Amino acid sequence: MGSAIHNRIAGIDDSRSLMDSAKVMQQPRSRRLLPLRQTLAALLLVFAGVALANITLALQHALFSGPSWQDSLASLTLAAVGVTLVWRGLTADDISGSIMGYAGGTFLWMGFFEWTWANWSVWLGIEPLMVNGQPALPASLLLVQASSFIFLPLVLLMAANRDTRCRMMRWCRRRLHLAPPAPVARQSNSAARVAATETVFVIWFIYLLNIALYDPRLLGYVSELYYSAVALIAGWGLYLAGRLVRIRNTGLVIRYAIPTAYLLSIPVDAMTMAGWFPAVWIQPLQYPIAAVATAAMFLLSVITLCRRRIPITGA
């Protein structure tokens, strides 16, 4: 489970027993793929996490309508939970750290970012985007959209970091033939930090992408360009899912599942907008059983991913 501890043998006394030597011998890296249930559990973990985040925010908005000290206290509590999860995850193994980092990053987004969009859009007096006399985008999403040129330089700085472990950044660098100096040795127990950072930036990116899809000044909802874009995003998500099943490390599968599941959530949202089925994850009071089932799926995913497997050794 997690990062294997490798111990190389150097100058072992011949008097040591064979059993003692075996304990310190380096185990060969497994070339076998992860069981499919591990990969599916990672995807389910992120999908359920996305739904639970929406359920939490919907409940918060139902309890506190508009900016208030109670709403701010609730957001600060969510942010504190996120900080705690990420901090505790720094000393956890790869799998637990990845889960705690993903959950912590989600709580950080709900506590800090969502509070910023919702409250400052009111305090700044931003009006919703109106089209034909009807609100097309709420003021909070316009504030998110205004952060585009904050998001982009931060992503560029991440891509320029020679020690980045983000596979998307590495893929972009390979395609653009940008070769930074060789990375230094990886820091141990950084899975929580990597997963939390990835989660925040992925959510931010998905917000900006969704806003572009629904903004009538850009792609605009219910247009041929909109449906083409959604189909392209669905294909991108399925491509990542195909790569996901080939990953051999459980911690990496969890981190890779974050962008995969978030991209696939966009066509799911599009289907709800088309009226195929209700968006139960933003209506927890109307669909309490679905909310409880989502929490149960998240817990089941955590248990499946953290279940220790006894390594099989042979000649």
TrEMBL record:
Transmembrane segments: 39-63, 69-87, 99-117, 137-160, 194-213, 225-245, 257-279, 285-306
Record keywords: Membrane, Transmembrane, Transmembrane helix
Highest taxon of the lineage: Bacteria
Protein name, per record: Uncharacterized protein
Biological source species: Chromatocurvus halotolerans
Taxonomic placement: Bacteria, Pseudomonadati, Pseudomonadota, Gammaproteobacteria, Cellvibrionales
